[in-house]
Specification:
With 393 residues, the protein is of the alpha/beta class. The protein is built from 17 helices and eleven strands. The strands form three sheets. It has a six-stranded parallel sheet, with helices on both faces. Strands 7-8-9 form a three-stranded antiparallel sheet, with helices on one face. Strand 1, helix 1 and strand 2 (32-37) form a beta-alpha-beta unit. Helix 7 crosses helix 8 (198-205). The longest helix is centred in the middle third of the chain and has 24 residues, at 165-188. The two termini are 34 Å apart. The model has no long low-confidence stretch (mean pLDDT 96).
Length: 393
């Protein structure tokens, strides 16, 4: 079977989430991804928690199908080995501290002179230049800086996203930018430099609230899990304690919702609710009516009425519900991958293809592939032993 990135070698100086998420997706498509880690502990994300058979949840998610090479890049011998590795690489990805890669001679300007076909992707909080270039950036800080927190949460308190949304955004743009750079190299024969900023990535995802607040207009209010400007659109409790998320998009759906779900056709023409703007203004009154009706029904009964009315809806799932989700099961989305602690379940990447199967190889142990990669580079057993004795690997 041929995968899209078979034959492509990616070297990644990576830690945490953004760069590892990017490179794991390149590995999914067949790329050989060599993850450079610190000798000993490796990527500090390995120690975030111990939820997956003693391994970190973030790490097993973002690091399958990779080879782990431990190098202490402060030591010249280790840096030399990395330079040798880059001679055969197609892509270098790094999300080290600002300026760290360039100080080691691993910036695009230096590398492109000796490796003109190399694609270099730098992932950082704020980008390669500008007044914020050297500012430390973590996911929650970028959620705050990008205005995400200002529109997420309740009127009383902002809330962060429940996953690393800024890291994920940056990882996705790095991934797609590398794919486009590989296509461009196929046309020009030249590598390129990609500068991905977490702030710019999440700012792109913030364009709806940005335009909503255009030219000094008020921004969208924080409305918890409800829509900021459409109502009813959000969570409602059923009588058995379950929560159903529903969303109405137009006046036709509002009429059907009243007739079939609420079983009160007169509600559709109530002057308080006969247009979305009025429903939005009178949320509290309408919510009380909906909750009174739903309070007499089980979650399943509410969903059944909404389905009958063809009103978009979903149960509010928890993690246990997602693990057991019947749609994921029916579509065969779960596979098994190896790890240092044994086999673990893993979701297939989104985007089912009829042309190839995604690569789903094990999560590596720290330094698992170091000696094999160094032998590939032509180092002797004595040289490898000397590097080990010096703590360089």
């Amino acid at each position: 079977m041929t995968r899209p990135l078979d034959g492509i070698t990616v070297v990644s100086l990576e830690h945490a989430i953004a760069a590892p998420f990017c490179t794991r997706q390149l590995a999914d498509l067949g790329a050989r991804v060599i993850k450079v880690e610190r000798p000993g502990a490796g990527d500090f994300a390995r120690a975030y928690d111990t939820r997956v058979k003693g391994q970190a949840s973030h790490f097993v998610w973002t690091n399958r199908s990779k080879e782990s090479l431990t190098l202490d890049l402060k030591q010249p011998q280790a840096l030399d080995a990395l330079r040798q590795l880059l001679e055969k690489a197609d892509v270098l990805v790094q999300n080290l501290a600002p300026g760290a890669a360039a100080r080691m001679g691993l910036g695009y300007e230096a590398l492109s002179k000796v490796h003109p076909r190399l694609i270099v992707c730098d992932i950082s909080g704020y980008g390669d230049d500008g007044p914020y270039r050297d500012k430390k950036a973590y996911d929650l800080l970028i959620q705050s800086e990008a205005g995400f927190l200002s529109v997420t949460g309740t009127p009383e308190a902002p809330s962060k996203a429940g996953n690393s949304v800024a890291d994920i955004a940056a990882g996705m743009y790095a991934y797609t930018s590398i794919l486009s750079a590989l296509l461009l190299r196929g046309k020009t024969g030249q590598g390129s430099h990609i500068d991905v900023s977490m702030l710019e990535s999440l700012a792109e995802w913030m364009n709806y609230p940005l335009y909503y607040a255009y030219d000094g207009a008020p921004p969208p209010p924080r409305t918890a899990a409800s829509h900021a400007s459409i109502y009813p659109y959000g969570p409602f409790e059923a009588g058995d304690g379950g929560t159903v998320m529903l969303g109405l998009q137009n006046e036709r759906e509002w009429k059907v919702f009243c007739e079939v779900v609420m079983q009160d056709a007169t509600l559709a023409t109530d002057p308080r609710f006969d247009a979305n703007a009025k429903r939005n203004e009178n949320r509290a009154a309408l919510k009380a009516l909906i909750q009174a009706a739903f309070g007499q029904l089980s979650t399943g009964q509410v969903v059944a009425r909404l389905d009958e009315a063809q009103i978009a809806n979903a149960r509010m799932n928890d993690m246990a519900g997602l693990w057991a989700h019947p749609q994921l099961q029916a579509r065969g989305r779960w596979q098994t991958v190896g790890s240092p602690a044994g086999d673990i379940p893993a979701l297939l990447p989104p985007g089912r293809s009829n042309a190839f199967d995604y690569r789903m190889d094990p999560v590596p142990a720290v330094g698992q592939h170091t000696e094999a990669i160094l032998r590939e580079l032509g180092l002797s057993e004595a040289s490898i032993a000397a590097l080990g004795a010096a703590g360089a690997i």
